[in-house]
């Protein structure tokens, strides 16, 4: 047993003892997170496994205030122990079950934007520090360039930058400072539940060095997809209003395009993942395939309606979790634009431009996704009964709107 696992087991055992006597105080997330990083969930020592399962069982019975530390800990343990309970899922592995519930406790688009930016800053910092330890110059340059490119999309105080701007070049030290400022909320420190979501949300299945990178990029894209789905939902509401406001509708579409654009930039780091490591990660995470993504399912189904109901994703994500809208946004937008053509062609043109921006960013994201999948996964069967990159290629040209 490693030192990290031994310390984690002791810390959880102590917390369990206190919980039997009264309020146990904060859960020891950090030592557990260090042990998981060292071993991977699939190779945790048995003693630590049992302690974590006991803690999960204990928190299920405890009263807790939504959004508070105890609430976050209970959901965190629910995700962390899912594979130990033979209940693996994509939402648990990526911790998007926890992220989504936290975001929906407040202004969901704002919360998803903030959390995704914080996770991106954490990823950049992790990868720059990792690159600094890399002995191979070419690999060090590759990782450093990818990380600083993503850092350029972040603002030290406001999270994501405007994707329409041209961000300046950043040196490594500048990127680290920018991410450090964002992660510390300008030196004020993050609220406890939010700090937990950022610092302890990598329930890696293996000890492969690239798995934290892979998992974090998936989390960021999931949050950005949820953010885009929120904007699409608001756009749909506005499009069905008795008197739609074209400017407000276009603003929601531009926000959607911006979220998808940020997700595209995350691929800069995904390209650095070693294919052999990814194969090992994939083998250790059976049952957690990306077809279970509720964020992307909501986004597509709100935009395209029944046209988005492909058999494989529908089998993974039912309509209860990600329903379609009637009419879908694409149809509602077409009607609004047609009406505008009769009395305000300039507004109709602006709405078409905003719609085209969403479709362009979506196609760009899908093209890059396909290219990265070919590089990292190769021509192997996909998850959920798909045929891998061929499945992605067949649906490459489908627009969102």
UniProtKB/TrEMBL annotation:
- The name this protein carries in UniProt is Tryptophan 2,3-dioxygenase
Extract the GO molecular function terms from the UniProt entry. Answer: heme binding; metal ion binding
Instruction: Give the highest taxon in the source lineage.
Output: Bacteria
Organism for this UniProt entry: Streptomyces benahoarensis
**GO BP:** L-tryptophan catabolic process to kynurenine
């Amino acid at each position: 047993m490693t030192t990290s696992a031994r310390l984690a087991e002791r810390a959880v055992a102590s917390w369990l003892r206190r919980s039997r006597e009264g309020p146990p105080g904060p859960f020891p997330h950090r030592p557990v997170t260090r042990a998981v990083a060292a071993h991977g969930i699939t190779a945790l020592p048995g003693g630590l496994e049992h302690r974590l399962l006991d803690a999960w069982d204990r928190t299920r019975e405890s009263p807790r205030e939504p959004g508070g530390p105890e609430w976050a800990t209970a959901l965190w343990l629910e995700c962390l122990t899912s594979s130990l309970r033979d209940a693996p899922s994509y939402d648990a592995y990526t911790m998007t079950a926890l992220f989504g519930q936290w975001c929906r406790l407040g202004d969901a688009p704002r919360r998803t934007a903030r959390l995704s930016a914080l996770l991106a800053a954490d990823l950049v910092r992790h990868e720059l520090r990792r690159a600094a330890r890399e002995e191979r110059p070419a690999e060090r340059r590759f990782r450093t360039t990818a990380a600083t490119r993503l850092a350029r999309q972040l603002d030290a105080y406001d999270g994501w930058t405007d994707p329409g701007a041209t961000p300046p070049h950043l040196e490594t030290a500048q990127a680290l400072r920018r991410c450090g400022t964002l992660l510390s909320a300008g030196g004020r420190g993050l609220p406890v539940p939010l700090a937990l979501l950022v610092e302890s949300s990598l329930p890696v299945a293996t000890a492969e060095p690239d798995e934290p990178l892979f998992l974090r990029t998936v989390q960021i894209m999931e949050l950005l997809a949820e953010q885009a789905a929120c904007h699409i939902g608001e756009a749909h509401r506005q499009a069905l209003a008795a008197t739609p406001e074209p400017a407000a509708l276009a603003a929601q579409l531009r926000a959607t395009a911006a979220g998808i654009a940020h997700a595209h930039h995350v691929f800069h780091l995904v390209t650095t993942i070693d294919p052999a490591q990814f194969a090992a990660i994939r083998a250790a995470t059976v049952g957690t395939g990306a077809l279970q993504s509720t964020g992307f399912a909501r986004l597509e189904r709100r935009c395209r309606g029944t046209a988005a109901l492909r058999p494989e994703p529908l089998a993974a994500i039912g309509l209860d979790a990600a329903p379609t809208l009637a009419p879908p946004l694409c149809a509602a937008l077409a009607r609004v634009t047609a009406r505008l053509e009769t009395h305000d062609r300039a507004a109709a043109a602006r709405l078409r431009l905003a719609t085209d921006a969403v479709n362009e960013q979506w196609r760009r994201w899908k093209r890059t996704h396909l290219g990265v999948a070919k590089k990292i996964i190769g021509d192997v069967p996909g998850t959920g009964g798909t045929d891998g990159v061929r499945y992605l290629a067949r649906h490459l040209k489908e627009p969102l709107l």
